[in-house]
């Protein structure tokens, strides 16, 4: 059984490498520097007196509609599988040099928005929560007030979106983040298959 499993994985890895769009991770325009630690990626950008970091994790970032693997067994081999897109939640932190606080904005891609490119007006990501956290603390405190945007005055919400756009976090950025995340997810998936193959073959 393990032999067949290893053989299946070998074929699968070859297939995945064939459809891999990016051999190296795509860059995000606008002077963002990328750091990757396993499945977590961090984009950092410094502008006058501020440091902006955007963090996301590719785990569980493929929307559920794309994960209907069972139906693909019945496909004819020459049919193109739908491309999987990774749309992770991402956290934007804005740190001003002269304050001890960090403004944290929790953003996500609404599932029904993806693919509505015709609607120029709509933003492809939304802000879900906003809070202040002490700068430099890794553990955020639940005791800090967190503003949930569900019931927020739309004018304030628009200002928050503009605030992000002024710092380079806009639709173009979000598109590039999806592309980066998708490439990273695929890269990690191939690595996982390779590790699994080594594990299965290990006697």
UniProtKB/TrEMBL annotation:
Q: Where is this region: Disordered?
A: 58-88
Superkingdom of origin = Eukaryota
Q: List GO molecular-function terms, semicolon-separated.
A: complement component C1q complex binding; kininogen binding; transcription corepressor activity
Q: Which residues form the signal peptide?
A: none
Q: Where in the cell is it found?
A: Cell membrane; Cytoplasm; Mitochondrion matrix; Nucleus, Nucleolus
Q: Mainly resides where?
A: membrane
Name under which the protein is recorded: Complement component 1 Q subcomponent-binding protein, mitochondrial
